[in-house]
Design goal:
Layout (H helix, E strand, L loop, with lengths): L3 E6 L2 E5 L7 E3 L2 H21 L6 H26 L8
Antiparallel strand pairs: 1-2, 2-3
Length: 89
């Protein structure tokens, strides 16, 4: 599979993968890790400082976003640590 770089501006990259309807945005691993950590912190602060019943939908949305981004980060980490890709970067 070969992705086509649609646009690149520094660390901001948009790619199109054959067979996909929409292009994707590339996010660097360190920034992905930062997003997961910030979503975790947001959920923790919300649980600590607010009435959970009053803000349940917000807490649920943060939790869903964190779970999705964590799944992406876990896959990214697994690929980076695999024998197949050791030494690629």
């Amino acid at each position: 599979m070969e992705a086509k770089i649609v646009s690149k501006d520094g660390n901001l990259v948009v790619v199109h993968v054959p067979g996909r309807s929409f292009p994707g945005a590339v996010i660097q691993g360190d920034k992905l890790h930062w997003v997961v950590n910030r979503l975790t912190l947001a959920a923790q602060l919300l649980m600590r400082d607010t009435d959970m019943e009053e803000h349940f939908e917000l807490w649920q949305a943060i939790g869903e976003a964190r779970a999705h981004m964590s799944q992406i980060y876990d896959y990214y980490t697994k690929v980076c640590q695999s024998e197949e890709h050791k030494g690629d970067w």
